[in-house]
Fold these 3 entries.
Entry 1:
Amino acid sequence: MKTVVITGGRGDIAQAVKRLLDGEYKVYTPGKEELNVTDIVSVREYFQNKHVDILINNAGYVVPMSIAECKIESEKKSIDINLFGTFNCTAAVLGQNREARIINIGSSAATKVHGTWSSYCAAKAGVVAATKCWAEDGFDVVCISPGRTDTKMRRGLYPDEDKMTLLKPDDFATIVLYAVKGKYAPGEHINVSLQNVGDLLNA
């Protein structure tokens, strides 16, 4: 039975993926208290005794604010969690198992402009670029980017948003399952939205 670790494991997407994988895979979904993706020691200690076959870099953080009025500590936290955390965990896993499959959870924000989301957009764009670099370096890595999705993080930002206009975590999780099973080529970046998820599910 292959071992899967999903960072940001308490989130809606992580839990939706876990539900699909349980039974066929041994799945770990550590929260930030157990695995602080921004801390080198925490990551090293968490992974040192685990043979990980599949890593899903899912930990995320966003607090929208203008760069002119931002709390720079919050911007650093966003970049640390969304970008450095992906590097930190990926390096730890590949250092022990170069054959591990890496699935980076990106965001449609990587390729779209959001005026007050600059640290998040920049970090997710970095994740997409890193995915392509690591694939060229010979590793099995893809990036799956959700669009507007009905998650706790989204509901906190937009509590009055019409949920019918949002991607469902369970549908997005199925695309992640396809990646877990190797459907996509290394280096691919798959954007998933409410508008195209049906086509992706049936492809």
Entry 2:
Amino acid sequence: MADWKRGLRRVIYPAYEARVLRKMPSENLPKHIGVMLDGNRRWAKAVGRDSAHGHRAGAANIEPLLGWCDEVGIEVVTLWLLSTDNLNRPAHELEPLLEIIEEAVAALAVQRRWRLHPVGALDLLPSSTAAKLKAAEEATSDVHGMLVNVAVPYGGRREIADAVRSLLYEQAAKGTSLEELAAFIDVEHIADHLYTKGQPDPDLVIRTSGEQRLGGFLLWQSAKSEFYFCEAYWPDFRRVDFLRAIRAYALRERRYGA
């Protein structure tokens, strides 16, 4: 990009962001947002680099995102960093990606600005990776900042299956018969065993890279969520893109099926 274009953007974008903030409705902002950080590999291919470079660029954009969330008062953020399907990638792709995720989560924990909570099938990860995610959670357990769910490795169907399995084990330990369980099991009982148990469901789900599908992200929790799809690849996702998503949500009339 020509230098004059970069200079022009440095002038225009801050002014535009300030304008968006001024016109942002203050009474209808999301409390919990889910973010599908998509497009790292395609971004890397577009700039002529390998996948690891794209994942590192994407990891570098996580801290700015959390700062933007703090600015508008978001209480919970769920970041989808790795799907259960991604675990099937070749080792030469998966191992660097896991290392990048470990480094990114550790860097967030050191800052002690946010309370980190891993959500996902940790038993599918290498033990060293799972241990580092749990260590980040423990290191930030007393932080009073925004709750950040780190979804690694995450799959919506797997979460629901794990929740039902956990519920069955719990009731079996109490001696509950199958007939008794069938009689009382309901939505709330399953929700109490999700990875995000005790948290509000996401009000808004953002997906970058132009893809317009959930891909298994928060299948249970997003039943009443609003969705915002952004064309930018995740490494190129900017504050102005985030503010547009929040504004779009704030201006929607949520009918909840009515």
Entry 3:
Amino acid sequence: MYYFADCQAGAAAGCVAGNNSNAGTSDSAPKRDLSGFNVNAVPAGTQLLFRRGGAWTWANIRLENDNVTPTSPLVIDAYGSGARPLFNANLGGGSAIDFGTYNNTSNDGGYTLRNVKFDGLGATATGLFLIHNLRHVIIENTEITGFYIGIQSQARAPHGVTNVAIRNNSISGNRGMGILGQFSDSVIEDNLFERNNYVSGSGFNHGTYLSGNADGGRNITIRNNRYIRNSVVNGVCEGGNMTFHGQLDGVLIEGNTIEQDAGAAGCWLMSITQGYDTAEWFRNFVVRGNRLINGGNTAIAVQSAPGIVLEDNVIINTQAAYQTGINIGHNEYQNGDVPDGNAVVRNNTACYPTPVNGSSVALVTAPNSQVSNNVTLTGAAASTGVCAR
């Protein structure tokens, strides 16, 4: 173990800084920071522990340690009591941590990051950047704020970015997106995505935006996350929340809450849709048990997703505005896009206290689909029971 303590801007009162002349192997004599410390030469299982209540001016580090393994990872964590260690990263177009290197095919991995806070100070492009061939990364109980993109993953053949667990984090207050990129055999669960894409509210930025191609986008679980007021400008959601484009296979979207106070027509809460000029498809998707509140004219939009299952979702719209809860199907399949068909849409509920004429729980034009037991509740019934907020 190595211990670090520093007292830069944002440190707690009474903070005591360490000294880089210390060995840093005891919490009573910590180092100050990572200056001159080679994180890629330490042995497997090494822990880098930062004092709670401390604060650091953070310089970019690149993790590419060939010693670590999935079972003996390099760990960045906190020690002591108080607030999470604060890493202030004023890095312009860079990133706080790069996991891996461009065009590296060695597929290194075994990194755990937990119990810390990264703040991009509104000036840094990316918080955590997962690059090309990388495996077994855990990001948990961490706060990521003040960046343009909180977490970005850019997969490449032959291995891609795999076995990533992003859980119990606050990924909030980033100017563009909370998470962007490609993952395989990975899970995103129990996170808070709040107030991302708060500058422009653009439909090109999202709370999370997952994509896929031949290099990644397989076997992903997005579960029990909360999306609150993403893509909001002047109190109204204008853009994206949970979005999927490209080629993805084997995606479970379960138990998430996506909530707005108000949404303009283009505020789609969940979008599994075509977005590129290359072939797109979304195979083996299951969307179940989610709650979607106050989106735009469509809460869940689906295209090029043959065999998709949507069940037990609750869609609430307290606005006096037209809304289709679930819209599946399309009439344009260009550039090799896979046609819709054989969707299963069952047991979904739309709660519309004051519905505008034409609003519905589901509009399914995908051929050979099974649509059953979907219910629209209005008036008082749309605010109680399953519809209660």
